[in-house]
TrEMBL record:
Domain Helicase C-terminal residues, every copy: 351-498
BP-aspect Gene Ontology terms: DNA recombination; DNA replication initiation; double-strand break repair
Protein name according to UniProt: DNA/RNA helicase
Molecular function as annotated in GO: 3'-5' DNA helicase activity; ATP binding; DNA binding; hydrolase activity
Length: 498
């Protein structure tokens, strides 16, 4: 689309009396300083749809004339989709400045060779001639009286963290909640979310993974039954809707702009949030200028851990699980050149003994491996011992069915890549890692893998074995982190005494 400038106002070429001097919006110097006109008969439907969002024109189910009228009366504003910088381009929607993720094409809309951003192309194309549309108007948010309906109880560690979360929300401050795997971090949010809703605040819980959104949404609907809630992810039926409580993948935050008073980033250590600056940019853009930011993590980045220990990052830790038993600590076991042995069609002797022992005692187990080709080799070997053994990885079309069969107890051993390092909880299992020295098994990944064991109060312990061909810093750091959490939990009196 091209615009002309008339008396300091942008006018789409399609609505202008003449197309003379029409240019792509990125080629025009302009300000977005039009003030709202008192008494203007605005469209509640349009402003409600756009509230807290920054969208492409094609994402708006309203006429261009209606949108332009609201712009001219100061209720909406246009923003360049991408802007020229000293070193190339920057995408305003996703923050991308990497030249490898920009491309050009002959554009029929602006009649030029038009540059666009490939980084966020899955959300619709942002180019030189693409305006982003946002609203200056916000409707008063409802206040909910005692919105929380939950009869559960919090552990001492959870109570302390819940109080810190509530304080951060009330004070519009930042907080990191460092909670061990199985600590019950979702329940820690309930009290703070209730406080926010009582204050008329909009709350967003963002997570890198779609399956977490699908899991959290029904849980939160149960405990906040009178509060409208929407769940946003690729293909979600709630897209375009608005609610005071939003559960979203971090990718979907790209469509929001100054929307939320409370932003909770769950699994901040998880892929892709941990490696994708675009998602951090999206979360920052989706928050209001005055807002609280809560990070939830079981495995903070080492730099964050140092900042927390030195008091440079405000944080609260939950070093014990809800059931009060200590975290199972992994043991290291050298297994030699395991890749060479796999090529010869066999597992290292101690790895084979570990697997066979689980089969004999009929105790379910995960066996984590670093790559898909390794997984296929291991499954081929172990299936000779038990035909129900299966392997699963990210590209496996039967992944969901295999995981459910494992949950149901129909699979004795599940060989897996790091795709199952988090999110799958089985009450009574052991876990081993083959090739724990591989680069993919970072400190964070190994802590998460160890966190699969001992999750239930009926089975609070289990065996965690890191089979390796040479110890790594990540392995040592993971074990040290688990031991440190157990020590802190004991010192704070959070562990059972019997």
């Amino acid at each position: 689309m091209r615009f002309i400038v008339d008396k300091g106002r942008l006018i789409p070429e399609a609505l202008a009396k003449t197309g003379k001097n029409a240019k792509p919006i990125s080629h025009i110097d302009f300000t977005s300083s039009l003030q709202p006109t008192p008494g203007f008969p605005y469209s509640p439907e349009l402003l409600s749809f756009l509230e807290g969002r920054q969208l492409l024109l094609e994402e708006l189910p309203f006429s261009l004339h209606l949108i332009q009228t609201h712009y001219e009366h100061g209720y909406l504003f246009y923003e360049k989709g991408i802007v020229k910088t000293k070193h190339g381009w920057r995408c305003i929607r996703c923050g991308n400045e990497d030249g490898r993720f920009f491309a050009s094409f002959p554009c029929a809309r602006c009649h030029t060779v038009c540059t666009y951003c490939r980084k966020c192309i899955m959300m619709g194309r942002v180019s030189e001639c693409t305006p982003l549309v946002a609203s200056r108007f916000s409707f008063p948010q409802p206040r909910y009286l005692s919105p929380l309906s939950w009869n559960g109880t919090l552990s001492k560690g959870q109570q302390r963290a819940a109080g810190a979360v509530e304080d951060a929300i009330a004070q519009n401050s930042e907080l990191t909640v460092w909670a061990v795997c199985g600590a019950g971090k979702t329940e820690v949010l309930f009290q703070g979310i209730a406080r926010a809703l009582e204050m008329g605040k909009r709350v967003c819980i963002a997570t890198p993974r779609t399956d977490v959104v699908r899991e959290l949404a029904p849980r939160l609907r149960l405990v906040f039954p009178g509060v409208p809630l929407i769940a946003l992810y690729g293909g979600s039926e709630d897209r375009g809707k608005s609610a005071p409580l939003v559960i979203s993948t971090t990718h979907q935050l790209l469509r929001f702009y100054r929307a939320f008073d409370v932003m909770v980033i769950d699994e901040v250590d998880a892929f892709p949030y941990s490696v994708e600056p675009m998602l951090e940019y999206a979360a920052a853009k989706a928050r209001k200028a005055e807002s609280s930011l809560i990070y939830l993590t079981a495995t903070p980045h080492p730099a964050w851990q140092r900042d927390i220990r030195r008091g440079k990052r405000k944080a609260v830790t939950i070093p014990a699980r809800y059931h009060g038993f200590p975290l199972p600590v992994p043991s290291f076991e050298w297994c030699g050149n395991w890749r060479r042995q796999l090529k010869r069609g066999r597992l290292p002797r101690n790895v084979a003994a570990w697997v066979l022992s689980r089969m004999e005692t009929k105790k379910q187990a995960f066996l984590f491996v670093p790559q898909i080709d390794v997984l296929e080799q291991v499954v081929h070997i172990v299936k000779q011992w038990h035909e129900r053994v299966e392997g699963v990885h990210a590209e496996d079309p039967e992944r969901a069915e295999k995981v459910q069969a494992f949950r149901d107890g129909r699979i004795p051993l599940l060989v897996t890549t790091t795709i199952l390092e988090r999110g799958v909880t089985v009450p009574n299992i052991d876990v081993a890692v083959l090739g724990a020295e591989d680069d993919i098994f970072t400190e964070s990944a190994l802590v998460q893998i160890a966190g699969r064991v001992g999750r239930s109060v009926q089975h609070p312990d289990g065996d965690i074995r890191f089979f390796h061909y040479g110890k790594t810093r990540g392995m040592v750091a993971a074990k040290r982190q688990i031991e440190r959490m157990n020590k802190e939990a004991a010192e704070r009196g959070l562990l059972r005494t019997q």
